[in-house]
């Protein structure tokens, strides 16, 4: 590859990621100014990443379907809080309680998402302001429900939840009493392995039986072959077996957290394997000419990242990080689910609708229905995300936990480089890391620079709102630009 | 016998309210035939196609009369999907493509190839995974079928316009049961070489037994590829015959042919105009008005002349007026009474004595929430600083002067209203147009440009406006440029008529030139 093309690609890369790069620089500067220790910083960042990523990922589908940033996600959070409250009243306990809350939240969130989607369909083009106002408006109903209906219309005898008069729910609901605090974060790896192994095994057997009944060929290889399942099942089975016969592995799996450097190494090895596979495929199987830019660039990145972890300061930091395994697995799983979903017929329809509603209609796609489904999915994921947030906190602020989530989640997504009309998993994850790094560092940097933590507080509020405002301006600007381009070619 | 015709339309009739837009139109298309459908704007072609495609507009306005048969079977299309299911496809004039998708994705849009998954067994087909390999193969086959070598996994964004047209065609071809394709002015946006390639592709498609209805204004293309043609005029079928038995001139005559209504004004005729000096010079004017682009119009207007500009919709006649008045980006030289216009300066045309009556009355011409009186004097007030009283540096409205003047204009132009204070938005279209005209005249212009002055107004108001324009020219010697889609109207009062086609002046004709000449000029075939 000639040097010119390389520079062009690098420039394109910088331009593509300008927002994220700018925030990386701000974060680095804030980090050095704050003088914060890496162990504290990494630990805090890992907690916040696990807590917030799910919520930010829930924003992707509406962006892709052309509904913009879903300020209506607050309704999903409300659904989550209603169901957590109900589960506590009904006496749900621990991890089971959290999953029960998710189950109860599902129909509520689907209903809310359907209603918001219906509403958005009648205000096409102003979904964002509509979503914001709906959030405020729904908050009124939410307060009515929690202040008056619970205890007032529906008698609830629970001193831990209700105010002394018996009408209205207390402002702070403690999840610890039901052992739901960090109930997801605390699930041991052994249990996860257990469930994963049996689930994949049952699924594989079911697939084979299904194929036998339907008299489909039981082929091993090929796009529909069993090989794909076995690639997952065999390592799982080996690990499962190993956990019984090899005691140190058993005790290792008994943990519910992974130490930071171990998690980073696992992730880096995974990344390296994937990109080596891509490199081999592009170079030797598809025989593309030249050096494949992307795999090489990523492999270099992996090596740089690995070398970075060897730095004593960073290693010490990573050594203090405790990663909740199940929560992180859920986040990774959601990332893959979204990627998978975008490649289904419905996902393709959503992309079509997002790009041009008129063309979608002409192609026989039911635009309104597709948009409603996008809203339902987003609201549902937001509800699950809020459950993850609340179990991690261990306390539900009845009248406050849901209020600012849309603001912070949207700001995080935009910091990652997403726009009103374009967002991906990559944007979401980068954004969560950068935005929350700034959140951790800003008050401390403020203290160091100005002698007041409040300055840093102001700064991070300012950043959250400013980034949203800038994104909206950019969106409007791009739209007028593309309109002009259209009229010039017409 | 039943498969002799792929499509039979019999006695189609359609009315919008009182207005009959299609009356007893019948046509029959054979498989593998290229069938040209011709007519001026408003002749009823679009309505006919809307009926054929089961567009909801038709149903919402009371349905249609007559019958549609596809391959001998009577059909009743209720929704566009019904027409698609029956094997009728459409290549749209503006592209129905998603720029962010690849060509293959666009070709298979809404008809993606998929593989079942676990979730699809539970939630239904929408959860099936796309089979991109199969989609690419299908797209490749369709592209090959129309002789396109372009790679199927290239993004549509950034493709030349001509290619987009072919992607659209490939999409229609990809539909397996396709029997009839409608091409709605497919060559309007193409370059000459792209257009000739398109005609080749159309013949290729037709040779595979797919019938084509070809809607176009370019008669030379019709002569080249079509086998049969039908001309519609004012909703009536004028003629239907094989191309071999007709000529371009005859078709042009058939398209335009209507009795020229007697001239409103015959005095002050164009006798001494030959010697009058040229007061407006337009040289190589380009205007980027969406849908009405002008690509280098050149013409002169003489003092005291009514200069008509006609042509079909979308060819750029409206663009000329908007460009001169600086409402859309324009370049070129326009000299008016010896002064050159500066397009980069907003309102320059107004300052140099040009008054413009826009075709967009409600959007550009009027302040709908304001009174008639204010609308009439508004521009004179802001541009010429008239109708104002000076109170030590503060300028306030001179209400009495405004009222007197408004009353005068209301009487002069016969604006039907209950008071000069009435909001303009509540007036009828014709009366709004009269207010626009009054406002333009208040500027005491040297040159008046009126664009589509009679669009959407009743006959009485129409005549009054045309009479008044003629009177202005006759009594005050005002120079007028009039743009109109209605040729008969132009022919009734103009001294000369320029016909615009493809953004250029295709010819400048005398009002008494033959129908054939006008028709040929409109289809850009007059050289």
Short description:
Chain A is mainly α and 490 residues long. Chain A contains 20 helices and four strands. Chain A is 75% helix and 2% strand.
3D structure, described in words:
The complex is a heterodimer of chains A (490) and B (527). The longest helix of chain A is centred in the C-terminal third of the chain and has 37 residues, at 453-489. Chain A has helices at 3-16, 18-34, 38-57, 60-64, 74-90, 94-121, 127-153, 189-213, 227-245, 247-253, 260-285, 293-310, 312-319, 325-342, 345-355, 357-362, 367-393, 405-415, 425-450, 453-489; strands at residues 172-174, 257-259, 322-324, 395-397. In chain A, the strands form two sheets. Chain A has a two-stranded antiparallel sheet with strand order 1-4. A two-stranded antiparallel ribbon of chain A has the order 2-3. Chain A contains 20 helices and four strands. Chain A has two domains: 3-160 and 340-483, ABC transporter involved in vitamin B12 uptake, BtuC (Orthogonal Bundle); 188-255. Chain B is an alpha/beta fold. Chain B folds into three domains: 7-56 and 73-256, Rossmann fold, CATH 3.40.50; 275-353 and 445-527, Rossmann fold (3-Layer(aba) Sandwich); 370-444, no CATH class. In chain B, the strands form six sheets. Chain B has a six-stranded mixed β-sheet with strand order 6-9-10-3-11-12. In chain B, strands 18-21-22-15-23-24 form a six-stranded mixed β-sheet, with helices on both faces. In chain B, a hairpin with a 2-residue loop joins β16 (330-336) and β17. Classes of the chains: A mainly alpha (490), B alpha/beta (527). The interface between A and B is medium-sized, with 26 and 33 residues.
């Amino acid at each position: 590859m000639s040097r010119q093309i390389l520079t062009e690609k690098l420039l394109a890369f910088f331009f593509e990621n300008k927002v994220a790069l700018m925030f990386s620089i701000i974060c680095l500067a804030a980090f050095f100014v704050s003088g914060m220790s890496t162990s504290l910083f990494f630990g805090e960042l890992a907690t916040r990443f696990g807590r917030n990523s799910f919520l930010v990922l829930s924003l992707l589908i509406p962006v892709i379907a052309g509904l913009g940033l879903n300020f209506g996600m607050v309704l999903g959070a409300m659904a989550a809080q209603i169901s957590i409250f109900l589960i506590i009243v009904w006496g749900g306990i621990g991890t089971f309680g959290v999953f029960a809350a998710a189950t109860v939240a599902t129909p509520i969130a689907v209903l809310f998402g359907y209603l918001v989607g219906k509403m958005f369909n009648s205000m096409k083009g102003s979904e964002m302001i509509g979503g914001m106002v709906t959030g405020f408006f729904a908050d009124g109903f939410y307060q009515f429900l929690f202040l008056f209906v619970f205890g007032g219309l529906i008698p609830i005898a629970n001193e831990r939840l209700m105010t002394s008069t018996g009408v209205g729910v207390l402002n702070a609901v403690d999840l610890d009493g039901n052992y739901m605090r960090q109930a997801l974060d605390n699930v041991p790896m052994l249990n996860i392995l257990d469930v994963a192994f049996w689930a994949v095994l049952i699924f594989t057997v079911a697939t084979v039986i299904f194929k036998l009944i339907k008299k489909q060929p039981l082929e091993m290889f090929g796009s529909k072959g069993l090989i794909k399942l076995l690639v997952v099942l065999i390592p799982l089975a080996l690990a499962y077996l190993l956990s019984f016969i090899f005691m140190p592995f058993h005790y290792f799996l008994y943990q519910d957290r992974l130490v930071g450097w171990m998690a980073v190494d696992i992730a880096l090895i995974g990344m390296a394997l994937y990109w080596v596979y891509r490199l081999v495929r592009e170079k030797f199987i598809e025989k593309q000419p030249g050096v494949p830019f992307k795999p090489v660039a990523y492999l270099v990145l992996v090596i740089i990242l690995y070398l970075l972890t060897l730095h004593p300061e960073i290693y010490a930091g990573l050594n203090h990080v405790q990663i909740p395994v199940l929560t992180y697995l859920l986040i990774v799983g959601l990332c893959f689910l979204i990627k998978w979903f975008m490649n289904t017929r419905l996902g393709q329809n959503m992309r079509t609708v997002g790009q041009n509603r008129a063309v979608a209609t002409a192609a026989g796609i039911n635009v309104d229905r597709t948009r409603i489904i996008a809203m339902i999915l987003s609201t549902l994921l937001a509800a699950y995300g809020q459950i993850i947030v609340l179990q991690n906190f261990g306390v539900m602020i009845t009248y406050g936990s849901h209020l600012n989530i849309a603001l912070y989640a949207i700001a995080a997504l935009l910091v990652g480089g997403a726009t009103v009309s374009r967002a991906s998993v990559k944007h979401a994850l980068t954004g969560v890391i950068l935005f929350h790094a700034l959140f951790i560092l800003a008050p401390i940097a403020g203290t160091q620079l100005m002698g007041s933590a409040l300055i840093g507080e102001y700064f991070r509020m300012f950043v959250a709102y400013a980034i949203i405002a800038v994104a909206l301006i950019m969106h409007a600007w791009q739209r007028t630009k593309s309109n002009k381009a259209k009229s010039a070619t017409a | 016998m039943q498969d002799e015709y792929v499509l039979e339309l019999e006695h189609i009739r359609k009315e919008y309210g009182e207005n009959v837009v299609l009356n007893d139109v019948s046509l029959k298309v054979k498989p593998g035939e290229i069938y040209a459908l011709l007519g001026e704007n408003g002749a009823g072609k679009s309505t006919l196609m809307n009926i054929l495609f089961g567009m909801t507009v038709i149903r919402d306005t009371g349905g249609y009369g007559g019958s549609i048969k596809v391959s001998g079977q009577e059909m009743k299309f209720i929704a566009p999907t019904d027409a698609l299911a029956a094997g009728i496809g459409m290549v749209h004039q503006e592209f129905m493509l998603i720029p962010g998708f690849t060509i293959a994705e666009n070709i298979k849009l809404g008809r993606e190839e998929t593989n079942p998954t676990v979730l699809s067994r539970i939630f239904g087909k929408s959860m099936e995974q796309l089979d991109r390999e199969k989609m690419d193969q299908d797209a490749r086959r369709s592209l090959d079928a129309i002789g396109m070598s372009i790679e199927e996994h290239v993004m549509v964004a950034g493709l030349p316009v001509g290619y987009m047209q072919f992607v659209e065609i490939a999409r229609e071809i990809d539909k397996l049961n396709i029997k009839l394709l409608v091409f709605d002015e497919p060559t309007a946006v193409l370059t000459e070489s792209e257009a000739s390639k398109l005609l080749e592709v159309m013949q290729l498609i037709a040779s595979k037994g797919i019938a084509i209805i070809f809607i176009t204004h370019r008669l030379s293309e019709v002569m080249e590829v079509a086998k049969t043609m039908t001309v519609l005029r004012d909703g009536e079928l004028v003629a239907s015959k094989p191309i071999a038995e007709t000529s371009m001139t005859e078709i042009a005559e058939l398209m335009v042919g209507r009795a020229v209504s007697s001239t409103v004004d015959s005095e002050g005729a164009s006798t001494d105009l030959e010697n009058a000096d040229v007061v407006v010079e337009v040289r190589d004017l380009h205007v980027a008005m969406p849908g009405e682009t002008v690509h280098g119009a050149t013409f002169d207007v003489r003092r005291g002349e009514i200069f008509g500009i006609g042509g079909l919709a979308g060819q750029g006649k409206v663009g000329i007026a908007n460009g001169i008045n600086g409402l859309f980006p324009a370049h070129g030289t326009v000299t008016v009474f010896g002064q050159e216009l500066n397009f980069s300066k907003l309102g320059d045309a107004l300052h140099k004595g040009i008054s413009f009556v826009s075709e967009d009355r409600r959007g550009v011409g009027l302040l709908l929430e304001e009174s008639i009186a204010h609308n009439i004097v508004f521009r004179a007030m802001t541009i010429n600083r008239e109708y104002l009283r000076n109170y030590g540096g503060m300028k306030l409205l001179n209400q009495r002067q405004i009222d007197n003047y408004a009353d005068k204009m209301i009487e002069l132009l016969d604006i039907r209203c209950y008071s000069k204070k009435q909001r303009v938005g509540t007036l009828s279209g014709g009366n709004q147009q009269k207010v626009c005209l009054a406002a333009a005249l208040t500027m005491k212009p040297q040159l008046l440009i009126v664009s589509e002055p009679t669009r959407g107004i009743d006959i009485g108001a129409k005549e009054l406006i045309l009479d008044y324009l003629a009177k202005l020219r006759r009594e005050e010697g005002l120079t007028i440029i009039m743009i109109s889609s209605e040729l008969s109207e132009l022919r009734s009062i103009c001294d000369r008529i320029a016909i615009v086609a493809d953004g250029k002046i295709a010819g400048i004709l005398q009002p008494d030139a033959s129908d054939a000449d006008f028709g040929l000029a409109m289809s850009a075939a007059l050289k």
